[in-house]
Write a structure and sequence with these properties.
single chain, 239 residues, mainly alpha, 7% strand, rod-shaped
Amino acid sequence: MTAPLNPPPPPHERSAQDSWQPPGTGPGAHGYQDHGSQAPGAQQAEYAGHGWYGQDGPGMKTELREAGVIAVAVALGGVLLGVLWWWLAPHVPLVGDVVEGKWVVFLKDTEGEQAVGVDGTFALLGLAFGVVSALVVFLLRRRGGVPLVVGLAVGGLLGSLLAWRIGVWLGPAEDVVARARDVGRGVTFSAPLKLGAKGALLAWPLAALVLHLGLTALFGPRDPEPEFPEGPYQAPPVA
């Protein structure tokens, strides 16, 4: 037998030649990127450009500040709600009489539903204000957020309380006995503006909360889906 024409290389040379290399490396490879030679923030910036990291919001301090401004602005709308309630609510007729030397006030129409109408008017106005405030806030701040929703709800509740007190203040005097004495015996006068069902105070904040959450779910901005770079797999750099 004759010796082979190409003898195998020595062990130390064979191990260096046969060692594994990542795809795309070695002589003649094109487009290989040496990740180990990049700056520390270069790879992170590249991944961020492909959408691996979502954009953060404006920051908790900014969101809290915006929520506070919205709460105050919405609460100030309670002034208008109180005026409308005083103007649109039905009047409850009362009449005064003297019984055993003392003034007593009675309902003129014991079967009337004016008192229910007073509460219903406040609730309907609260629902309307809740819809308007939620729509305006959504148009101004489409991205939503927990502080924004909380500020909207708190502002609606404060606005309802403010409207209630303003309506009572603008309405007839609360001392019905003195009022009956002033107008005279048997003369009809209006009862003070009173909110019998305190649950009507929640109409504004609940309507604003539900509508804003619905608008955000239907028309709010969506989080971008992560995009991965195209091309063959590249092994991470060895530390």
